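Cross-check.
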Amino acid sequence: MAREAHEREDMLRDARALVPRIMLRIELAGGAADVLAGFRGEALSLYFGDDPVFHFNARSELRRAFVADQLIKAERGRLVVLVPDRTQERTELQATPLGMNPESRLLAEIESRLRDLDSALAANRFEILGQQPSEGNALVTLQRWLAVRSGIRVANSPRVGG
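Predicted model, tokenized:
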């Protein structure tokens, strides 16, 4: 279910663990896309609307994702899907390995999105919808992160510091 614009603005305002953070409208070949980028130290979180969402650690390794309504996390250098197992008393998340081919496709999709984002920023095909702090350097920090990364690798842990 898509969020409305005011809910995205609330996320920009309320995602206080991500400093700095910025909401951008990016012009891509398929049309405009709203992207929220935020940092927790050197770790980047990218929200392409409601889905997909990618979380990286300080080494630019993928640690968590939300793609096609699936929760995905890194576990010992591989990706697993977290599938809810519901009972009357509780809900537990069961980790199911993603598999080599789906993992490779997902990493290629992420790489493509990051290249498109980098290209749009370099070509000035974006609008800043807001940032926190308002006088912050989130755009420069994002551009620097995109410039120094080298491919997508899977983290050993889903933790921001792991």
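The two ends are 31 Å apart (CA to CA). The helical segments are 5-14, 100-122, 138-148. Passed to J.P. for a second look.
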